Amino acid sequence: MSDVPGIELNNGATIPQLGFGVFQIDPSDTADTVQQAFDAGYRHIDTAQMYGNEAEVGEAIAKSGLPRDELWITTKCNNSNHGYDDAQRALDESLQKLGLDRVDLYLIHWPLPGKDLYVETWKGFEKAHADGKARTIGVSNFQPHHLDRLLEETDTVPAINQIELHPHMQQAALRSYHERHGIRTEAWSPIGQGRGLLDAPELGEIAQAHGKSPAQVVLRWHIQIGNIIFPKSVTPERIRENMAIFDFELTHEDMQKIEGMEKAERLGPDPDKFDR
């Protein structure tokens, strides 16, 4: 755990730059898998109401015996819970499932522009933060124009925007927007969901030069450009491998090669069109 750097957020809190994600992990496997992550040194866990495994994450937290102040727990507001009151009610339900009195980060999962409730939802998040139920609040999958409205119509700048980000979808313009406004970038699908990215010859060459795997190279790239990441795996060896990225550094040439892999191709939905 001591090898994982911290990233300071705009409210003064510090988030571990490397975490562990539980997206698409079956609830029946979640508690054991999170315990394996804890055993490997992870202290930052990313879940969501949508994933249906918050209670099992909570089970792992309770069984771990780890001090609460060593852990960073993120959850996300489900798309069915937009609105000032609903977002707060949903967080109360998440806290009950997680067995916690607060989360470290609460995110709006998607902006859902067609419903046009994300500003009111964010105001509910501000209340949850003021009440001490969310140490930090942020968003996920927001585009600059969504963020502009939050900045113009509310009092709190999101600490984080969690977005699809990997070498085939590098989001340079959005990352630049974040930097200008003091928002940290968090990457979901950091290694491209295993859909061919790791087979790229550029990554194979870099991996061979460093004695690492292509996945470790991509995760290290994220670390070096300042992204917060939380790769997911249910394989103990891969869980440990994803942690072993702090004993090498990519060269300037390596970074340029990866930058050249940009395709601007999404694996997930377009945030401007997704409204479910």
Care to give the gist of this entry?
The protein contains 10 helices and 10 strands.
Task: Using brief descriptors, characterize the structure shown.
two-stranded antiparallel sheet; TIM Barrel; alpha/beta; globular; 276 residues
Describe this structure in words.
This is Aldo/keto reductase. It comes from Actinomycetospora lemnae. Keywords: NADP, Oxidoreductase. Belongs to the aldo/keto reductase family. Residues 24-261 form the NADP-dependent oxidoreductase domain. By secondary structure, this protein is α/β, with parallel strands linked by helices. It has a single domain, classed as Alpha-Beta Barrel (TIM Barrel), CATH 3.20.20.100. The chain is built from 10 helices and 10 strands. It has helices at 27-40, 54-64, 84-98, 118-130, 144-153, 172-181, 201-210, 214-225, 236-243, 252-259, and strands at 6-8, 14-16, 20-21, 44-46, 72-77, 105-108, 137-140, 160-164, 184-188, 228-229. The strands form 2 sheets. It has an 8-stranded parallel β-sheet, with helices on one face. α7 packs across α8 (214-225). The longest helix is centred in the first third of the chain and has 15 residues, at 84-98. The protein is globular. The N and C termini lie far apart (37 Å).
